Amino acid sequence: WDKPDPGGSSGINAEYGGVYSEVAAYEFTTLTTVPGVIRYKGAKIQLLDLPGIIEGAKDGKGRGRQVIAVARTCKLIFIVLDVLKPLGDKAIIEKELEGFGIRLNKSPPNITFRKKEKGGINLTQVVPQSELDLDSVKQILGEYRISNADVVLKEDSSCDDLIDVIEGNRVYIPCIYVLNKIDQISIEELDIIYKIPHCVPLSAHHKWNFDDLLEKMWEYLNLTRIYTKPKGQLPDFNAPVVLKEDNRTIETFCNSLHKGILKDLKYALVWGSSVKYQPQRVGKEHILGDEDIVQVIKKH
């Protein structure tokens, strides 16, 4: 995303995605969503270069609603900022995304909320609270016309956290702030920028520091590569099956290959970091590690 940044996100997409989207020396050059594909560490990752968003985008200005709706479906967001004036633009974009229910670099609040037929409001505080108490919880639930519910606060939570849980339509997406045009600042300024969390400084024009961005992208996507090994053959290291970090069982691996494999599965042989013995016989619940090798053994 760039707001406003001449040739920022378009330059990155051209370099990585093998796609040329209009790059010009003025703001908001991307007018439609331009898809590209990054091939990295054996995985194919789709990169969408979205039009820049302006203040009021969440309320429909500048086709902002359509743009943000696409962002809600992504696994990772790059926000491309001009390193010479990053903070103002960063605040505007974050506010627009927050207004559309996107939470950047946050985990879902550790709050259990359950509506019930009767019994009033029951509040359980597992840890001491600095902001919420029974009165404030009742007041917030009252805004939603909820008078019977169980609420369990398992961490020190804010009013906004509780509202997010009640609304239930929030998405939690990791985000990397790409600070472009580092060729225009001093080494001292660059040292300071490197200390900002979730940031990667680079120069799209000079193609500086793109390796760092790719490495951070891989880290934030949290993907697991699994190599297949047909019986009696060497593993196929060219085309890994890519699984999400939170769903990397043998069952998910089989379904990624073909929906019919699981019902014929007798067991799987696994080589790699997730097993004690090389190979080790495992069932469908086994959780795989990055770069494990799997051979599926079918029932006869």
Give an account of the 3D structure:
By secondary structure, the protein is of the alpha/beta class. 26% of the residues lie in helices and 27% in strands. The protein contains eight helices and 15 strands. It has helices at residues 8-16, 64-72, 86-99, 134-143, 159-167, 187-193, 210-221, 250-257; strands at 34-40, 43-49, 77-82, 102-104, 111-115, 121-125, 149-153, 171-173, 175-180, 199-201, 223-228, 236-244, 265-271, 280-282, 292-298. The strands form five sheets. Strands 12-11-15-13-14 form a five-stranded mixed sheet. It has a three-stranded parallel sheet with strand order 3-9-10, with helices on both faces. Helix 4 runs parallel beside helix 5 (159-167). The protein is flat.
Briefly, what is this?
The chain is α/β, with parallel strands linked by helices and 300 residues long. It is 26% helix and 27% strand.
Mean pLDDT: 84
Total strand segments:
15
Structural class: alpha/beta
The biggest beta sheet is recorded as:
5 strands, mixed
- Gyration radius, in Å: 23 Å
If strands are numbered along the chain, what order do they take across the biggest sheet?
12-11-15-13-14
Terminal CA distance: 52 Å
Proportion of beta-strand residues: 25-35%
Principal-axes shape call? flat
In the predicted model, the low-confidence regions spanning at least 5 consecutive residues are: 1-7, 19-30
Instruction: Compute the number of helices.
Output: 8
Instruction: Give me the strand/helix succession.
Output: HEEHEHEEEHEHEEHEHEEHEEE
| Helix-residue proportion | 25-40%
